[in-house]
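We store sequence with structure; for instance:
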Amino acid sequence: MVTPNLCQTAFTVLRRIEPAIVLEQLGSSLFTTALQMVAKDRCVNATYPDAHLSREASQQRAISDFYMTYNLILQLVPILPALLLARLGDRGWRRVPIMVPLCGYVLSSLTLLMVVIFRLPLVVMFGGAVVFGLSGGFGAYWPGVMTLAALSSTATDRSKVIMRVELLYGTAGLVGSLASGHLFLLYSSSLENGTILITVGALLQLLCLMHAIFLLQVKHQPDKEPEDTSQLLPDTFSEVPVEAPVEAPVEAPAERNWVNIVLLVVAAVLYGSAVGGAVEIMEVFVLKEPLNWSATQVGYGHAAGCTIFLTSFLGVIVFRRCVSDVTLILIGMLSFASGIYFMSFVRTTYMFYLARSLNLFALIPMPTIRSLLSQQVPASSCGTTLTYLQLALKFSGLAYIPAFTKIYQGTLDWFPGFVFTLSSIITVLGMIPIGIISWRSRQMRQYTRIPAE
């Protein structure tokens, strides 16, 4: 017999943000695998006027062209809608930045479902990407989630709550990715490959939307001490949902440290470009020989990427006890640079996972850079500065997405992994500004100790 207390506890949990996080990420992980396999299927007979292109090269070029356009739409269209939704959220409509993007998630999944069922051209997905972008996309959804999580906790417990949310997000992605490949293979004589997978993903996202509309509770937890609201802002328009644990509030400087600001922005843009370009090409790279992954293997590959969320958190917990934030950034960048360089020479599936295992701490740098950047400006300018950083990252996609795509297409015949080597080089270049900041910090400490001596 179910006790009333148990029912009340279950209802309380259902009204929290965590169920929405799990449902959305499960649905999104299924959608990602489905889109990748549908793109591979639709581009198998792609032809180009270049007579020297083989069938596989033509397929790779078609898939990479599709993802280039698709990702550019996802980068640019959500900017203005996300800003408007964030403003509505700050005016008290806290659920709006969550509900509206979830509508976009559902419509995007339904678009892919129609493409599969009615054998529509793959370019129809560009329309789905536009609809998703106009809803605010992930750039509106994730800050809305993090804001609700922050408001439901005290300033003292906020870092623990944010870490729990991030770990839940990564775990849900891991589970969804592992299941996605197997679901893709389920079909009958009347159903196309991927129909069941996309339908399940769309239903999960629809259920998440219903949860946000009817069950999700906006609960503000009063603090006994003034709240450092600047900690809520770094996640705005975050593309990589990983947040380093927030330490004790640091007193903001009275004036901007322009040298450190420029160095941090340059490092963020270089690292964001390296990661974004490499991950985009990786989705195409695993579909060609010698890997030629099936749907199940694609799902496992996405699961490996989700595992990095968990290992990056563990890395933050362990390393932050003994190293500075600057060193933490360098560790994360070195982790990515080494792993993505090894990816250049991957020829078998086990080598792919070895390369990914070197990326265990690759998600540490960006949130740590945001944290350091917020400490270089007055508190009143923190939100504006971090928003400008995210806009810089968005617009850098205009350069690195087509650049990586065209370089990959141009090097397919002689060195398909060249783009990963290039990504590693760009990451090393991104380490230079961080190294300069570390050197300036040491010089400043030595300078301040001189009068005491």
